[in-house]
Write a structure and sequence with these properties.
By secondary structure, the chain is an alpha+beta fold. It has four domains: 285 residues, Cytochrome Bc1 Complex, Chain A, domain 1, CATH 3.30.830.10; 182 residues, Metalloenzyme, LuxS/M16 peptidase-like (Cytochrome Bc1 Complex, Chain A, domain 1, 2-Layer Sandwich), CATH 3.30.830.10; 146 residues, Metalloenzyme, LuxS/M16 peptidase-like (Cytochrome Bc1 Complex, Chain A, domain 1); 205 residues, Metalloenzyme, LuxS/M16 peptidase-like (Cytochrome Bc1 Complex, Chain A, domain 1). It has 39 helices and 25 strands. It has a six-stranded mixed sheet with strand order 3-4-8-5-7-6, with helices on both faces. Strands 14-15-19-16-18-17 form a six-stranded mixed sheet, sandwiched between helices. Helix 23 packs across helix 29. It is globular, with a radius of gyration of 29 Å.
């Protein structure tokens, strides 16, 4: 498509005194503004809930880091949470010379090589930083955002971008813009040495992440010249040890300029008011020429490049191809379709020839779109007794099929139908809208948005021959293959802990700027409570009920069959649901079933947890009858397949083996062991002997009989209830009498009578520690109190835990703590607290957390912010779609018949610090805990662990039950 043709698609309009561009038929109705100083503003209105997803992005990431200071863009991202000369400081006049002195010291430190001299300089940095910290107000930015009702305050740095993210209430837009305008005006790099330690921790966490190490290895090989592969996102260990504040300031001055930045907002707002406010508040920004990164073109890869990555996690393989970047919209279109031919979760070549046939444990394809180059990645995991090279051969075989064009042309039409479905689903989310708009700004300065709007229309013009030609042009023996193998990683360079003296935390201090923000008037948002009697319509379907909510927005539907039994009733239930994926019927093969669902842009899934089972059929309402009829046929007529079962048993054995190397799975097992004891919901599973003895007929019988058990029918979609009821009666046969489900196994929570340490040895750089304790039985009157407590104590970056353990003591990158509410009325609350730190800081981290668990600091200002934030969350929350039905079902389990949020909301203003302290004293202070410690036994000593309680080293068999 020529540029002239692209430009023809853009239209110009004026509203509220501002001119903007737009693309007709854009489902987001996005407005693209360019202000006088070059700042791009992109606005997409969505009135579904009174909230706005905001993104402020700059077209600068690790690509733009100086070669001598990798990780610099990421450092700056962290520092832009620290405030300016107007907020984050008690007295800027006194703080400023100290900040300047620290900058000079880091400059000196950066240029010094002698170890003893470096230590002496760092001691001076630590000393001056401690004095400077007395004038700092840590987390004032986070407190202001919490005060206006922001959620998900975050930021991220990638190769081509740094994005600052907030989800705000609609009535807070003026406050938000005032804060952001000040934030980017004159950032002060205060509290640097403690934030530096947080970045060290982030680096160490990534060195424990085998997936990230494989990804970096892949990029390095794919891009031997381009910064995609040559610039570390977090920074090299050597560069992290030698930070330079002057270089960070220079980076800010060069790239944080309006002609290189965009503000994107998606949600409920008046665009005319918003653009005027942005223009007024950001007019101080001055455009400046930006040095674009101009890479040297990569030479063709002429033969496969092999890389090996070692670590404790499961083995896998990635095959990566370097292809044209996303600036080439034609290439992007063909690549996306090609990827769907390979993998669409139903009828792709990998789906049908590998996953459905269980030829490997798992295979998938994905695309990473970047400006200069994109990457097509095929990934796979081996089943038991299979080598990674055998998986490689399977993956390459599918590419050979693709390049020959040995796929059904009808697949292209189905891909288009599913793209339509995906677009409808993504439009529901403000975050999806804002992310897509920002991605286009980063890649093309939004010049290619017209192509994105026309994407589905353009898909329909793509021919099979074009795809085959594209595949043969770019997919050859020109790949990088990364083998993730089990074994010790001997290349890890841990970032050592510097000596840091805890800094003073001025928790209750408030700047004049913050008071000004608080004084900005806002229109109140009235909360909306669910009325289960009015918001859900009910009608009888024979011996069960239909719960109905109408979709008035689009043509999507979701139909659920909800059963009140799950894995604790029958351990074989999940196995049967998994088995269904590989079964045909007397009428259809597995391949035909998947093709039929994909062609009509519909889907089904069976979700089973410990206490419930939900069958969901979803997609386009126009194909409702076909989708439901097909599922009903499949569940009623699936045929036993002994060969498929034998292979599935092999896969289960391999998955179980891999789970034992998965840090997250181990952590979940520790939590369950601590809360429920040695026999718990996590490890109460079928033994390998049990699995070996299961027959194909046994599992298909479970599937055939599943709809015969008591269940409710839930529907969300555009059809009137009477029409839906008629259709369901016709399509979904109910028995005259429901079968009785097996009695569930009960797992009562245990009492923590004395301190105990559950230790699990894992090859890792960091140490992760959990504090676990069961509390009282559910009491709905405590809902408001527990919400406020969690927000105040350990909920986010403004919480007591974060301020103390990260900001003051620099003990962790991540820490949190909360009281988890039960999901049924006779269950108990549980306290779960966490910190991840370097192994040599474990004792400091435990002592620090124990102090907060014993005595909760008083900060009336933070408490008021927490209360206000919870109220704003409730005021702007809109429970919609089938979420209304599921909220009703959850309330029933808790013995409630009304929306508990109303009762909680009405109690929040009355909650005092004394109430929070009483809850803390009753639940947490001077209590016994089970500590869960996940660490390498080479870095943590048994003597240290014994300080905190009786030590039990858990085996993986004890954790997993196999």
């Amino acid at each position: 498509m020529t540029n002239a043709q692209k430009n023809d698609k853009w239209k110009i309009a004026t509203a509220g005194g501002y001119t903007y561009k737009y693309v007709p038929d854009d489902p987001m109705k996005a407005r693209f503004y360019k202000l006088n100083n070059g700042l791009t503003v992109i606005l997409s209105v969505n009135k579904k809930s009174p909230r706005i997803q905001t993104l402020i992005g700059t077209r600068a990431g690790s690509n733009n880091d100086p070669r001598a200071h990798t990780g610099l863009a990421h450092y700056l991202e962290h520092l832009l949470f620290k405030g300016t000369d107007k907020f984050g400081t008690l007295d800027w006049a006194k703080e400023k010379p100290l900040i300047e002195q620290i900058t000079r010291l880091y400059d000196k430190y950066n240029k010094t090589t002698d170890p003893s001299t470096r230590k002496a300089i760092y001691r001076e940095i630590d000393s001056v930083s401690g004095i400077a910290a007395k004038y700092a107000i840590p987390n004032e930015y986070d407190k202001m955002m919490a005060d206006i009702g922001a959620q998900a305050t975050n930021a991220h740095t990638a190769v081509e971008e740094t994005i600052y993210e907030e989800d705000i209430p609609s009535n807070a837009v003026d406050k938000y813009l005032a804060i952001q305008a000040e934030r980017f005006r004159a950032p002060v790099f205060r509290l640097f040495h403690t934030e530096l330690e947080a970045v060290y921790e982030e680096k160490n966490r990534l060195m424990d992440d085998d997936g990230f190490k494989g990804y970096e290895s892949m990029l390095t090989a794919l891009f031997p010249r381009h910064n995609y592969g040559q610039q570390s996102l977090i920074g090299t260990t050597e560069h992290l040890k030698n930070p330079n504040l002057r270089a960070i300031r220079q980076f800010y001055n060069e790239y944080y300029v309006p002609n290189n930045m965009a503000i994107v907002m998606a949600g409920d707002f008046d665009p005319d008011h918003v653009i005027k406010s942005i223009d007024e508040k950001f007019a101080y920004m001055k455009a400046r020429a930006v040095k674009e990164y101009k890479p040297v073109p990569e030479a063709p890869i002429k033969a496969p490049i092999e890389k090996n990555v070692f670590g404790p996690a499961e083995e896998s393989i990635d095959i990566a191809f370097r292809v044209p970047g996303a600036l080439d919209t034609k290439s992007k279109l063909l690549l996306n379709i090609l990827s769907s031919i390979l993998d669409n979760s139903k009828t792709g070549l990998l789906d049908l020839n590998i996953n459905k046939k269980q030829a490997a444990l798992k295979a998938n394809a994905e695309i990473i779109h970047m400006k200069d180059y994109s990457i097509l990645i095929l990934s796979g995991r081996a089943k038991l007794g299979q080598t990674l090279d055998e998986v490689k051969a399977l993956l390459l075989d599918q590419l050979a099929i693709l390049k020959k064009g040995d796929f059904d042309t009808s697949l292209l039409k189905a891909i288009v139908n599913n793209a339509k479905l995906n677009r409808l689903e993504r439009l529901e989310s403000n975050n999806n809208r804002a992310t897509e708009l920002m991605e286009e700004f980063i890649i093309s300065r939004s010049q290619n948005w017209a192509d994105e709007v026309a994407y589905i229309d353009d898909m329909q013009t793509v021919t099979k021959q074009q795809l085959v030609d594209y595949a043969n042009k770019y997919i050859k023996d020109n790949y990088v293959i990364v083998y993730k193998r089990k074994g010790e990683d001997k290349n890890i360079q841990k970032v050592e802990k510097p000596a840091i003296t805890p800094i003073v935390i001025n928790r209750e201090a408030v700047t004049a700027f913050r008071q000004e923000i608080s004084a900005i008037p806002v229109a109140p948002v009235k909360p909306q409570w669910l009325d289960f009697q009015k918001d859900i319509q009910k009608t009888s379907l024979g011996n069960t009920d239909l719960l109905y909510v109408q979709n008035k927005d689009n043509g999507l539907f979701r139909l659920h069959y909800r059963f009140d039994f799950g894995n604790q009733n029958d351990k074989k239930l999940s196995l049967a649901a998994q088995y269904l994926e590989f079964l045909g019927t007397d009428k259809y093969t597995v391949e035909q079933i998947n093709k039929e669902f994909y062609e009509i842009a519909c889907n089904f899934r069976i979700n089973i947890d410990n206490k419930s089972t939900t069958i969901t059929i979803s997609g386009l309402q126009e194909n409702f009858d076909r989708a439901v009829a097909l599922f009903e046929h499949v569940i009623a007529n699936c045929k036993p397949n002994e060969e498929a079962l034998a292979v599935m048993k092999n896969r289960i054995q391999k998955i179980r083996s891999d789970n034992k190397q998965d840090k997250k799975a181990i952590r979940t097992g520790i939590i369950n062991y601590a809360l429920y004891g040695s026999r718990n919901p996590f490890n109460d599973v079928l033994s390998q002997t049990d699995i070996d003895g299961i027959t194909a007929t046994e599992l298909t019988d479970i599937l055939h009989q599943l709809p015969m058990h008591q269940h409710s029918v839930l529907y969300w979609g555009p059809q009137p209830m009477s029409a839906v009821a008629t259709d369901i009666k016709k399509l979904h046969t109910l028995p005259a009498t429901f079968k009785i489900a097996p009695v569930a196994v009960n797992f009562p929570k245990v009492n923590q009578e004395k301190n105990q340490v559950l230790f699990v040895d894992y090859d890792m750089v960091q140490t992760e520690v959990l504090w676990l304790r069961n509390l009282d039985t559910y009491d709905p009157s405590k809902t408001g109190h527990s919400l406020v407590f969690n927000k105040y104590f350990g909920g986010d970056m403004g919480s007591i835990l974060f301020q103390t353990l990260r900001e003051s003591k620099a003990l962790a990158y991540a820490t949190f703590g909360s009281v988890a509410s039960p999901d049924k009325k006779d269950d108990r609350y549980s306290a779960i607290t966490y910190i991840g730190s370097q192994a040599d800081k474990m004792n400091e981290a435990i002592v620090g957390m124990n102090q907060l668990l014993t005595d909760i600091p008083r900060d009336d200002n933070s408490l008021e912010i927490a209360k206000k934030a919870i109220k704003q969350d409730i005021e702007t929350e809109r429970i919609t779609d089938d979420g209304i039905i599921f909220r009703y079902l959850a309330a029933q389990k808790l013995g409630l018949n009304t929306d508990i949020r109303k009762q909680a909301y009405e109690t929040i203003d009355k909650i005092s610090f004394d109430d929070i302290k009483k809850l803390h004293d009753d639940w947490l202070s001077h209590k016994s805990y089970t500590y869960g410690v996940l660490a390498s036994d080479k870095k943590v000593s048994p003597e240290d662990l014994k300080k905190y309680g009786d030590v039990k080293q858990l085996t993986l068999e004890e954790i997993f039950g196999y």
